[in-house]
Amino acid sequence: MRVVVLGAGVIGVTSAYELARDGHQVTVIDKREGVALETSLANGGQLSAHHGEPLAQPGVLKLALGWLGKHDAPLLYRLRLDPALWSWTLKFLSNASEPKFWENAARMLRIALYSRERLHETLARETIAFDHLKTGILNLHRDPRDFDMSLEHVRAMKELGSERRILDRKGCIDIEPALAHSTVLFAGGIYTPNDESGDCHAFTKQLAERCVKRNVDFKFKTAVKGFDVDGWKIKSVITDRGRIEGDVFVMALGSYSPQLLESLDLKLPIYPAKGYSVTVPVLNDAMAPRTSLTSHAHKLVISRLGNKLRIAGMLEFNGYDTHMDTARARVVLDATLKLFPRAVEPGHAEFWTGLRPLTPDGAPVLGRGKQENMVLNTGHGMLGWTMAMGSARVTADLVAGRAPDIDLDGLTWERFT
Ligand SMILES: Cc1cc2nc3c(=O)[nH]c(=O)nc-3n(C[C@H](O)[C@H](O)[C@H](O)COP(=O)(O)OP(=O)(O)OC[C@H]3O[C@@H](n4cnc5c(N)ncnc54)[C@H](O)[C@@H]3O)c2cc1C
Questions:
Q1: How far apart are CA 26 and CA 249, in angstroms?
Q2: What is 62-82+133-196+271-358's CATH number?
C-alpha cells in the first residue's frame, strides 16, 4: 500500500520504519529540512516507561495556583484569549480526580511498557548509537513529608505494573555516587531500575537512515496544508509543493495535528505545552551523574548523553510561542549547578525550547481517525520518546488491518466525545 506519513519527528519516523518493515511504499512529509528538528530535537532523553503518569492528578490545581505569578515556577500559565486553551484546561481539570488519574495512568503505562518492549526488539535488529543507558531513573525527593506521602502512590503504581523501589538518601547515593557531592539536601528517592535514557534526535536520525535503505521517500521543506477528501476517504494530502496521493495517511504532526485534523471534522484537545532544555558539556566525570534523574521539587529531568548532560523541564501554556526566555532557561541550569556543583561547563550551555503535544489526560491519540484511511499517532505530550516504538507498531498493525498487540481502549479519539 502507499502510506503517507505526515511529520518526521520521532513519532513519524518510527511509524515510517515499522510501515516499511511491513512492506509498504512509504512517503514522509515534513516542513523542516530534516528529521526530528522540532519537539524531538533536544528533549529530556528519558525512556521512562515505568513513569507513565498523567500530569492531571489530585492536588495539581492547588500546586499550580501556588506557582501563579512566579517567574521561576515550573509551570507558567499565561492567561490569553484562546478558547482552545480554556477548553483544554477544563478537560485537564476534569481528569484530575483520583479515579481518573488511575484510569489514565493505567492507559499510559500500557502503551509505555509496550513501547519499551518494541524498542528493545528494534535494537536487537538495528545497531543505533544514541548514548543509550540502561541504568534506571531515580526520582529525587527533597521534602521528607512529600516523600512519605508518595510511598502509598508507589504501592498503587506497582499494582499497575510499574516497577519502583523506595530508597533512602544513602540508597540514592549508592545508585548515583555523584549525588554525594550535591549541595541540595534530599530525603530519598524512588528508583525505577528498568527505565533508560538516550538521545532521541540521534536515534530518530539513524532510524530515518534505515528507512531510506528500505526505500522510504522523505519529502522535506514540504508543508501540509489540507486534504482532498472524497466521502469518507482521503484521496491526497495538499502541500505547498502540490498534492501527494496515498492509500493510507498517518497523522504524526505533534502539536500541529489539531489544526489539520479540524479540516477533517475531528476536534482533538491537543495543546502545545512549551518546555526548556539545557545541554552542557561534562567537566568532571566523577561529579556528573550517569543515572538519569528526576528532581521532584524542580520538576526537572537530567540525562547523561555521552560527555554531555541534558536537563529539561518547565511547562508553559502560551499557544505556539517558542521564544527563549533566558531567565527561565537559567532556572533550569542553576538547579543543575546546585545539584551537581563543578560537574559541568555552564559557559558552553546550549538552550532549547520545544512544544509538547499534550492531551488533557496525558495519553496519546492512536487508532483510526474519522476517515477510514486516516490513522492517528499523535498527542504524546511529556512521553513521546518513551512511547514512540509501541505507538509505531500499533499504527503499522492498524494499516495492515491486524489487531494491535495491546488493547486501544482509552487511547483513541473517541474518549474525548
Ligand atoms: C522540554 C521537553 C522535555 C521532554 N522530555 C522527554 C523525555 O525525557 N522523555 C520522553 O519520552 N519525552 C519527552 N518529551 C516529549 C517528547 O519530546 C515529545 O512527546 C515528542 O518529541 C513528540 O514527537 P512528535 O513526533 O509527535 O512531534 P515533533 O517532534 O514535533 O514532530 C512533528 C513534526 O511535524 C512537522 N510539522 C508540523 N506541522 C507541519 C506541517 N503543517 N507540514 C509539514 N510538517 C509539519 C514538524 O516539523 C515536526 O518535524 C519532552 C518534551 C519537551 C518539550
A1: 10
A2: 3.30.9.10
